[in-house]
Amino acid sequence: MKLLQQILDHNKDFVENKRYEEFATTKFPDKRMVILTCMDTRLLELLPKAINVANGDVKIIKNAGALVAHPFGSIMRSILVAVYQLQADEVFVIGHHDCGMSAIKPELVIEEMKKRGVDESAFETLAYSGINVEEFLKGFSSVSESVAHSADMIKKHPLMPKDVPVHGLVINPETGKLDLVVDGYGQ
Ligand SMILES: [Zn+2]
């Protein structure tokens, strides 16, 4: 059975048996915080357990690398919406060791794109349009530096209220141990 059908079958059963009831909550985070973290599969359940948050406790935003790549991109917009409209009073940026974005080699990804059928002319068109694909795919070499940089971008964002602490942490994806990089209360 294909993955989509498996999901739809499970979902029918989930709804029919009212298994949603144990997850009932509101859209406002009980712990009044928003987390930006990585989409890494190992963090899916480990991170909430390791920091003691459950359904209804937090707003959580995920992308590859827990990066704020652009001050006016969708990540920053999500953080601002969480702060101004959804009662998040603190921001946590949580990167992790052994992150795929620390090992990413843009030139290899581009090679892979070409192998998978993206035409050379697409790269030429993008280059003419001023888009640097290597830069677009770039990751980081140090996760703690990256977390500190993202936390700094959020803290200093012109649209952020000054009284919102922005913390930076790095989690171990095997043990769940957190290392503090930025204590937002000290800013
Ligand atoms: Zn990651």
TrEMBL record:
Keywords: Metal-binding, Zinc. Gene3D superfamilies: Carbonic anhydrase. The keyword Acetylation does not apply. GO terms for molecular function: carbonate dehydratase activity; zinc ion binding. It comes from Bacillus infantis. Its EC number is 4.2.1.1. Binds 1 zinc ion per subunit. CDD domains: beta_CA_cladeD. Zn(2+) binds at C38, D40, H96, C99. SMART domains: Pro_CA. InterPro entries: Carbonic_anhydrase, Carbonic_anhydrase_sf. Pfam families: Pro_CA. It catalyses: hydrogencarbonate + H(+) = CO2 + H2O. Belongs to the beta-class carbonic anhydrase family. Its cofactor is Zn(2+). The keyword Magnesium does not apply. Signal peptide: none annotated. This is carbonic anhydrase. Coiled coil: none annotated.
